[in-house]
Amino acid sequence: MDIELIEIRDFLTQHHPFDLLPDEAWDRVLSTIESSYSRRGQVVLEAGEPCEYLYIVRTGAVETRSPEDDQVLARLSAGECFGVHALLNPERKAVNRATALEDSLFYMLPADEFEALRRAYKQFAYFFAPLGAERLRDAHTHANVSGDRDQLGFITSKIEDLLQREPVVIDMGTSVRDVAQKMRENNVSSLLVCDDKELGGIVTERDLRDRVVADALSFDAPVEKIMTPNPITLNANALAFDALVTMSQNNIRHLPIVRDNGDLAGVITNSSLVQHQSTSAVYMVGDIHKRDTFEGIAEVVDRLPQLLCTLIEAGANAYTTGHIVTSIADAATTRLLKLAEQKFGPPPVPYVWGASGSQARHEQTSTGDQDNCMIIDDSYDPDQHGEYFKAVANFVNDGLHACGYIHCPGDVMARTDEWRQPVSVWKDYFSKWIDEPEPKALMLSSIFFDLRGVWGDMSLLEPLREIIAEKAPLNRLFIVHMVGNALTHTPPLGFFRNFVMIRGGEHDDTFDMKLSGVVPVVDIARIVALESRISASNTFERLSTQIDSKVLSSSGRRDLLDAYEFISITRLEHQVKQIRRGDAPDNYLKPEELSNFERSHLRDAFSVIKTIQSAMANSYSIG
Question: Is residue 188 domain-shared with residue 263, that is, in the same domain?
Answer without folding.
Answer: yes
